[in-house]
Amino acid sequence: MGKYQGVIFDLDGVICFTDQYHFQAWKQVADEIGVYFDEKINNRLRGVSRMDSLDIILERSDRPYNAEEKAALAEKKNDLYKALLLNMSPRDLSPEVKETLEALRAAGLKLAIGSSSKNTKMILERLGLSGFFDAVSDGTNIQRSKPDPQVFTMAAEFLGLPASQCLVVEDAEAGIRAAAAGGFDSAGLGEASAFAMTTYPMEHFRQLSQICL
Ligand code: B16
Ligand code: MG
Known about the structure:
CATH class of the largest domain: Alpha Beta
Bound molecules: 1,6-di-O-phosphono-beta-D-glucopyranose, magnesium ion
Mean pLDDT: 97
Number of strands: 6
Largest sheet: 6 strands, parallel
CATH topology of the largest domain: Rossmann fold
Oligomer: single chain
Helix content: 40-55%
Strand content: 5-15%
């Protein structure tokens, strides 16, 4: 085995792609309250918690929303989002991701999820990955969202490994910042591959085999 004993994977943008569903659900909510929302604003929501995402969307609103109204909007978005998640199935897990996860597992690495999403368990179920990971740290066990390192620190704790022996795999700048703040090396896909703080910029998920094995 190489430098790492464990790998902590972000979910959305790394293992699977639910950003279109997030976009559709937020778009419907934004349209209903007459607030402008587009794909560019949606990009700022990657890795960001649900309530923080809503605050970003409401930057375009011409009136303030109180806590109760915000909770109702977030709940509406989540109901729409969960209905869209029902479209997902094990076919949404790419062969590349599946084979790489299996190769890392076969090499004895411990594998965890570190996601901001409170819907992580439902998404893993839809993908046929329930019970696959050695640990799941997600939006349900944290108080502070990325770029705070808490979600990854807790994932490493669940695995029983120090941060220095775990690699974090991320697609979002907020996630790479979170990894660095927690003392983790990071591998970055998508937007995160062009970010200066990313330890290993990657083009393909399968490159993890070269980094870790
Ligand atoms: P939920 P990740 C993040 O997942 C998404 O990238 C982000 O867009 C979303 O707002 C956040 O989860 C919270 O999701 O509303 O399901 O709790 O990238 O950290 O896996
Ligand atoms: Mg992500």
